[in-house]
């Protein structure tokens, strides 16, 4: 099997773990049809389907080629590409670390702005606008419309 098949297998296992973890999110008495676990479980389902598609594509490529000549994976990723992937992973970990302290709205705004900056957007005004509008949109969608309880951060606990 090719490298893509094994990567898909690891991603599928991660999706299964994410699905299980999302099922442990406590259900609020305010929840209706959409609960706090709906979005994470949807993401886990999509991730699992993409992993299965990657694995299927790998198997199909293997079947098209002769068993004596293994399928080529193409060019190997460069160290720069690995560094960019690790940078995006670090941004995601930073988001998760900041979430309980800064709260959902500020953390999402920073996540969007930092990820855009990391991916080449340099002008400060559009970055700020993107982060602010994204934070407002996601806060309105998840907290106000879907009533998903999100961390408020330390702001409510600060003396007034």
From TrEMBL:
It holds the Pfam family TctB. InterPro entries: DUF1468. Residues 7-151 form the DUF1468 domain. The chain crosses the membrane at residues 39-56, 85-118, 124-146. Keywords: Membrane, Transmembrane, Transmembrane helix. The keyword Transmembrane applies. This is Tripartite tricarboxylate transporter TctB family protein. The lineage of its organism: Bacteria, Pseudomonadati, Pseudomonadota, Alphaproteobacteria, Hyphomicrobiales.
């Amino acid at each position: 099997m090719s490298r893509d098949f094994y990567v898909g297998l690891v991603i599928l296992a991660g999706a299964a773990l994410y699905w299980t973890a999302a099922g442990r999110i406590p259900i609020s008495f305010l929840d209706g049809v959409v609960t706090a676990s709906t979005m994470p479980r949807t993401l886990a389902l999509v991730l699992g389907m993409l992993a299965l598609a990657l694995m299927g594509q790998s198997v199909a490529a293997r079947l098209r080629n002769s068993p004596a000549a293994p399928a080529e994976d193409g060019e190997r990723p460069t160290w720069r590409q690995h560094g960019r992937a690790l940078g995006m992973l670090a941004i995601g970990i930073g988001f998760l670390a900041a979430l309980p302290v800064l709260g959902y709205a500020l953390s999402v705004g920073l996540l969007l702005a930092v990820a855009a900056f990391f991916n080449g957007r340099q002008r400060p005004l559009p970055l700020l606008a993107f982060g602010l509008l994204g934070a407002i949109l996601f806060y309105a969608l998840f907290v106000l419309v879907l009533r998903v309880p999100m961390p408020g951060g330390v702001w409510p606990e600060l003396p007034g």
